[in-house]
Design a protein that fits this description.
Elements lengths: L14 H13 L6 H14 L3 E5 L2 H11 L7 E5 L5 H8 L3 E5 L10 H5 L6 E7 L8 H11 L3 E4 L7 E2 L2 E2 L6 E5 L12 E5 L2 H10 L8 H6 L19 H12 L1 H19 L5 E3 L6 E2 L5 E5 L7 H10 L5 E2 L19 H9 E4 L7 H15 L2
Helix pairs in contact: 1-9, 2-9, 3-4, 10-13
Family: Belongs to the DegT/DnrJ/EryC1 family. L-glutamine:2-deoxy-scyllo-inosose/scyllo-inosose aminotransferase subfamily.
InterPro entries: DegT/StrS_aminotransferase, PyrdxlP-dep_Trfase, PyrdxlP-dep_Trfase_major, PyrdxlP-dep_Trfase_small
Protein name: Aminotransferase DegT
Length: 379
């Protein structure tokens, strides 16, 4: 990266994470072990969940969550098309069919109304996303799903530290899934987590991530006598390493500082962008607060520059913005996949862009981004 280029995101990593990873390597325990267990306990406490199960990615977390619910061939799962494609793909991994629902314009999230519009007798679950850290109204969604007798899985990949009604996203969820990709606030390089209050489900998730074994490698190692493990069902290799968990523990301890900083930067964006015609920034919904994992703006139809041209102009100015959240139903992987009209999804995906936002961002960098946007708004 050249000195003057502004990236869209930089993970907040430093010497403390490097030492933690080094300590894990020097301990000799680098696969799933005691640091993973410690990270799980800390993450469960942070999110207010009874149990946390570390896995290799949020995608595998989604797959396992649907698997333990018994989702399979012939079933349908309602998902937003407005999400990273892994949300829909996880449904297909089970052999079930993702059914794309539209989203609310201001939050980019499913609502009871958009789910109900595509629900059928074959619907077996709903998979809601807290998009870009903006919390979905899970109280309304949980009430609707309870009325329909459908389980609700929450894709909270981007939402660590966001809140709904003053409680952490994921609090009280049947199953919630999380990502530790470098674009997320808490990163372990790659990695994921499932949280749940159900002890039996948590125990099964732990088995399934490790080939269906009834005794983990850590349990066998800690035993003073030989342990002959059994494989209770067909499982997967979805484990996290202790090296990743060591980094995750340091990152988790920095989360409150990260959120405070990101919300301050988002508030400054709001002030600077106010008055620029044709730009509608993302904000907190009435029911909660965002961690601002992403800060996106929606262009009105009368904005003088199209979204793709605006991205090109920003890039030429040394600013690494990104297109808005993808619409999975428009991707080649889902060509021919049936979908109802999704006008809000297509509007957000077509007309939005994600602006740079990261912990070490300076006011001068923000000023430069806003100046470029203001110039383009003048046509």
């Amino acid at each position: 990266m050249s000195a003057g280029r502004i990236p869209v995101m930089i993970p907040w990593l430093g010497e403390e994470e490097a030492r933690a990873a080094s300590d894990a390597v020097l301990s000799g325990w680098v696969a799933q072990g005691p640091r993973v267990a410690e990270f799980e306990r800390a993450f469960a406490e942070r999110t207010g969940a009874g149990h946390a199960v570390a896995v290799s990615s949020c995608t595998t977390a989604l797959h396992l969550s649907l698997h333990v619910l018994g989702i399979g061939p012939g079933d349908e799962v309602v998902v937003p098309s407005l999400s990273f494609i892994a949300t829909a793909n996880a449904v297909r991994y089970t052999g079930a069919r993702p059914v794309f629902a539209d989203v609310g314009l201001t939050t980019g999230n499913l609502t009871p109304e958009t789910v109900d519009a595509v629900r059928t007798p074959r619907t077996r679950a709903v998979l809601a996303v807290h998009q870009g850290g903006v919390p979905a109204d899970v109280h309304a969604l949980r009430a609707a799903c309870a009325e329909w007798d459908l389980p609700l899985v929450e894709d909270a990949a981007c939402a660590i530290g966001s809140t709904v009604g003053g409680k952490p996203v994921g609090h009280g969820a049947l199953l919630a899934t999380w990502s530790f990709h470098p674009r997320k606030l808490v990163t372990t390089g790659e990695g994921g987590m499932v949280t749940t209050d159900d002890a039996d489900r948590a125990a099964r998730l732990r088995r399934l991530r490790e080939h269906g074994m009834n005794a983990s490698a850590a349990e066998r190692h800690a035993s003073g006598t030989p342990v002959l493990e059994s494989y209770l069902e067909v499982g997967f290799n979805y484990r996290m390493t202790d090296i990743q968990a060591a980094v995750g523990l340091v990152q988790l301890a920095k989360l409150d500082t990260m959120i405070t900083r990101r919300r301050a930067l988002a508030a400054r964006y709001d002030r600077l962008l106010r008055g620029i015609p044709g730009l509608c920034p993302v904000g907190d919904p009435a029911h909660g607060q965002s961690n601002f994992q992403s800060y996106w703006v929606l262009l009105d139809a009368d904005f003088p520059v199209g979204r793709d041209d605006l991205l090109g102009t920003l890039a030429a100015a040394g600013i690494s913005a990104r297109r808005g959240i993808m619409a999975a139903h428009l991707e080649p992987a889902y060509a021919g996949h049936p979908a109802v009209p999704l006008p809000v999804t297509e509007r957000i995906s077509r007309d939005s862009l994600i602006l740079p936002l990261f912990h070490t961002m300076t006011e001068a960098q923000q000023d430069r981004i806003v100046a470029t946007l203001r110039e383009q708004a003048r046509g």
